Input
Amino acid sequence: MALIFVTGNRHKFEEVSEIAAKHGLKLEMRDLPCKEIQADELEEIARQSAVDACSSLGKPCFVEDAGLFVHALRGFPGPYSSYVFRTIGNDGLLKLMASIGDRRAEFRSAVSYCEPGSKPSVFRGRVKGSIGFEARGSKGFGFDPIFSPDKGDGRTFAEMTITEKNELSHRAQAIKRFLKYYAQRKKAHR
Ligand code: ITT
Output
């Protein structure tokens, strides 16, 4: 039986499905019209979204919430990444940072899993990297064209395949932690 991943973002779904498939788990994508709460912590947003999605579906499911945290901008856009991407986008963020020498940034991810009648669990991941001076690459989504992970070879996430991004990304780390927990939980309930 497939496990439900509640997201409206098909790129995320593809990234996560690739990892889940390696763990022998099939996912089903569900985009729910639930309103995402606005909060200063990704974990809090993910936890609340998982509870809301689970109660509206009446089934176990998980959500993932991510954001880009720029060091010189004191963590901006962080939990506001979706809004900032939709409004000023990569060009706007690059302009905002034009005179900033410190390009350090990180992506953070929070995965939250919830079962009816249980409290949600949260799993985190993060990847350190830097913001370029121009957008590069056409793969991926969101801020991928302006972010190069420190542990990579200088390419941006948008210049990598899904498999390559999954070796380094915030989301892959959080998902792997969740999948380990999920497999143990399934085993215990067998
Ligand atoms: P959901 O339906 O799953 O919530 P979303 O696209 O709204 O999908 P998030 O709220 O988790 O996703 O992410 C906020 C924004 O942060 C997202 O719109 C992207 O612009 C950016 N972002 C998140 N993860 C990213 C990644 O891996 N690469 C590039 N940008 C990312």
Observations:
- The chain has six helices and six strands.
- The pocket of inosine 5'-triphosphate is lined by residues 7-9, 12, 36, 64-68, 81-82, 85, 107, 140-144, 157, 169, 171 (CB under 6 Å).
- The mean pLDDT is 95.
